[in-house]
């Protein structure tokens, strides 16, 4: 009985170690992110990195400020789960029946890549598609699935940006000049230009 339990425990540890080794890792300008593998509808293996910060959290004194550079971090960032949407009013067809949902700390990107530069057999850097979600600057979110697009040789980037008053309030002066949601989009493109090569994307072809 003890032998059986010991064998079972060893198998579990080996499985955990195998899964950890299998997780894709990317070291880029701000730190190291750990993603996961999944497959497209055609069965192609891809590596999503979810919830990667492209700017500092726009909270507190930064609430109505233009986005600031992301902060460097130590260790590995778990990039296997989609982060919460930007703060917004919900609609009946959205996640809740009424009220407000989301989080002010929401300036994160999702990167989906079919190849990483250090993987065996990796070829040239791939074209990059940056998807800017709609929603009249008031609604919706970044986590649209990649399972069709990633059958092609591209790197896909989706991201959140500030919505509603937090993204577009303006006092028409220097206090709150406005359009921070658009400035978030510009900051994301800057982040892509500086970092997408680490994820197998070509910064010269976005």
UniProtKB/TrEMBL annotation:
Record's keyword annotation contains Mitochondrion: no
Sorted UniProt keywords: Glycoprotein, Signal
Domain annotation Carboxylesterase type B: ranges: 23-206
Lineage: Eukaryota, Metazoa, Ecdysozoa, Arthropoda, Hexapoda
Signal sequence, start to end: 1-21
Protein's name according to its UniProt entry: Putative esterase and lipase
């Amino acid at each position: 009985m003890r032998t059986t339990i010991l064998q079972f425990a060893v198998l579990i540890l080996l499985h955990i170690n195998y899964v950890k080794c299998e997780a894709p890792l990317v070291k880029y300008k701000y730190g190291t992110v750990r993603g996961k593998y999944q497959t497209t509808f055609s069965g192609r293996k891809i590596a999503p990195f979810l919830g990667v910060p492209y700017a500092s959290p726009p909270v507190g004194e930064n609430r109505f400020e233009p986005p600031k550079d992301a902060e460097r971090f130590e260790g590995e960032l778990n990039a296997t789960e989609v982060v919460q949407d930007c703060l917004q009013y919900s609609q009946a067809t959205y996640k809740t029946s009424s009220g407000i949902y989301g989080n002010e700390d929401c300036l994160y990107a999702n990167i989906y890549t079919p190849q990483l530069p250090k993987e065996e057999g990796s070829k040239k850097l791939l074209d990059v598609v940056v998807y800017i979600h709609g929603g009249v600057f008031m609604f919706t979110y970044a986590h649209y699935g990649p399972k069709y697009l990633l059958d092609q040789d591209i790197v896909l980037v989706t991201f959140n940006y500030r919505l509603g008053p937090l993204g577009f309030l303006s006092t028409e002066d220097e206090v709150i000049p406005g359009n921070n949601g658009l400035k978030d989009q510009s900051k994301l493109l800057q982040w892509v230009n500086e970092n997408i090569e680490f994820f197998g994307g070509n910064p010269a072809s976005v």
